[in-house]
Amino acid sequence: xxxxxxxxxxxxxxxxxxxxxxxxxxxxxxALTRLLAGDKASLYTATSALQDPHRVExxxxxxxxxxxxxxxxxxxxxxxxxxxxxxxxxxxxxxIRPGSNGYFEAARYVQMLEIPTxxxxxxxxxxxxxxxxxxxxxxNFLPVADALSQRLILLDPANTGYYRQQLATFNQxxxxxxxxxxxxxxxxxxxxxxxQHRGFPYLNNWLGLxxxxxxxxxxxxxxxxxxxxxxxxxxxxxxxxLRAAYQDERPSAWIAERARINVVVLPYTVGGTVxxxxxxxxxxxxxxxxxxxxK
Amino acid sequence: MFKKTYLSAALTVLLSHSxxxxxxxxxxxxAIREQIQQLKQSYEQRITQxxxxxxxxxxDSRVPVQAQPAAQAASESAFNPAILLVLGGTYGQLQxxxxxxxxxxxxxxxxxxxxxxxxxxxxLSIAANIDPDYRGVATLALASTGGVSxxxxxxxxxxxxxxxxxxxxxxxLGYLNEQHAHIWDFVDQPLVYASLWNNQLGEDGxxxxxxAPTDTFIEVGAELGRGRGFPGTDRVKNGIGSxxxxxxxxxxxxVEHSWRAGVSLHQTRRVDAxxxxxxxxxxxxxxxxxxxxxxxxxxxxDFVWKYSPDGNSRNSYVKVQGEYFRRxxxxxxxxxxxxxxxxxxxxxxxxxxxLQGVYQFMPHWRSGLRYxxxxxxxxxxxxxxxxxxxxxxxxxxxxxxxxxDYSPSEFSRLRLQMARDHSRQGLPDHQFFVQYIMSLxxxxxxxx
Lengths: 295, 448
Description:
Chain A has helices at residues 2-17, 27-37, 60-67, 84-91, 141-155, 160-184, 201-207, 225-234, 250-259, 279-294; strands at residues 20-24, 41-45, 71-74, 103-105, 192-195, 210-214, 240-244, 262-266. Chain A is α/β, with parallel strands linked by helices. Chain A folds into two domains: 18-178, 3-Layer(aba) Sandwich (Rossmann fold); 185-293, Rossmann fold, CATH 3.40.50.1980. In chain A, the strands form two sheets. Chain A has a four-stranded parallel beta sheet, with helices on one face. In chain A, α2 (27-37) packs across α5, α3 (60-67) crosses α4 and α5 (141-155) packs antiparallel against α6 (160-184). The longest helix of chain A is centred in the middle third of the chain and has 25 residues, at 160-184. By secondary structure, chain B is an alpha+beta fold. Chain B folds into two domains: 2-61; 86-441, Porin. Helix content of chain B is 16%, strand content 48%. In chain B, strands 1-3-4-5-6-7-8-9-10-11-12-13-14-16-17-18 form a 16-stranded antiparallel beta barrel. In chain B, 34% of the residues are buried. Classes of the chains: A alpha/beta, B alpha+beta. At the A-B interface, α3, α4 and α5 of A face α2, β5, β7, β9 and β10 of B.
């Protein structure tokens, strides 16, 4: 009995002192966790900005890292369907099972766009819950930060005060930054753009960019030459073609050369470009690149 | 004058009255003013509050969290099980009879290829969480000849890195054994899998795996089974028919490389394992039927290494894998069960390996090369059968396969494969296959 009590105490005392093990599926959520949890969390990022988050191998290293995770933070909305279920299952870690407190999906806290009205694979790799690329609208980070902070408090109540303070600081700084970005991005309003992948609806919605064409005939399927020629014919006043850092450069380069428009490579997430080293610089750089693309 | 005085007096009274009146009403006015002021302030405050809330709402510009149903994100597919149907088929062009086994492996299982058009690996898979602790998976294989067989039907649960699986499953030994046919990189399994495991070892039993709490992937596992799959001989009695032990280790090297390596051990007791049409030393026409009873022990090693530029496997990647298995069987062999029926001791050590590479050279397109080799070993045959059983074939079966596949989407794949098959002495074969694999339904997650 005493031994049991001692072990329980030991468990709780270590639990309260040890940093939370956080497994972030994408770099943007790792960056947000860094801002909200500081050194209270030990972070592991499963993917880099140069990897397509739809297609990640369920590598042994990811399974090993998920084994000890206290909190899994991912986009959700079907973005990680091809690999995350295997990781969670093979990790044998009950704390991060879907539905448990250790399983956090950011997409559940924002207003989803492009929720399909019909689900049919003939439309390509559609996501039933809506477009999962929510991280391109800076405003989406506010409700996610709020929910994530609550989750951190739930898992690590000993540091409640710290998390609350970090959230307040983040909210203040982020609101100021949004105001700054929106002011900087004012000239982008109404500008026509072409997107390589259906990955920018949130960015378009936020900054008022007008998407006139997509290079992928169907989401997730590499553009064919025939489709590219069709897009080229339809292009009228598009100013630039947008591509995420991880995507194949050829389709957008092809269009840009023939339509005489600029290719704008967006970091898409933290680490996508040399400049985008944290969440704030991610949007600084995104807007700077968009503005440069107008010239 | 009087009039003037009267007037001024009246004026004075009036004035004084009005003064008195104003003096008398002053506190009320003040109160009203204050009230208005308060009202104004309060409204201003409330307006600013509303403005602030509006600004915040605009900044968030998002509907509250509760708007989305909780079940959507939390379960595999809101109470309905995930259903995956794989449709597959091949066309095979072979120069030799596919029923002839690899030389020296006539007593092994030898799943041959099919000639012409045939429905290949079509299967229906259903999976769902059963409750917070258990998950169930069933995979029914649709045989090309008609009929349905249960390929997998298991329940799994896990906690603290311990993973328990029970029911019917593919054994966790080696690397390829657990993979279903629709994710194979070639039309067929390597020769060593075909000869030593009848393509894949399926078991009815219990599997337990433990994942070490380390940053490097280290996993150990054990299985106790019925001994259903080859080389086991299905049994109808109490106890355990087969046992498997395996360990895997894996990690990343930077962001571009990842690997996994493993070792496996398998053991079973074979009872009255009948094999037919076995060539013998006297040269009986059509061969004879033999029966073997004894122990079968197999050890294996496997590794896989994957590389993709920037770790982005969508555009291009390279995957290299190899496996080696060595099996020792020893016991009693009955020669020609139908006529002579002579029983004596028999033991042999056989082995085989393959090495293959798959290269996705651009999105959607992959090519692959595989080399197979088997060693039938030299059997030691008891004196009574020394003149009957062929103990040394002096031939090592080999095969080289080349494949090219195209995947228009994540859910479809079309494949061409050519092979130079020298697995049967004196019967070189040039094989050609066309294959399609289509999956519809749930988006299955793939293991490494």
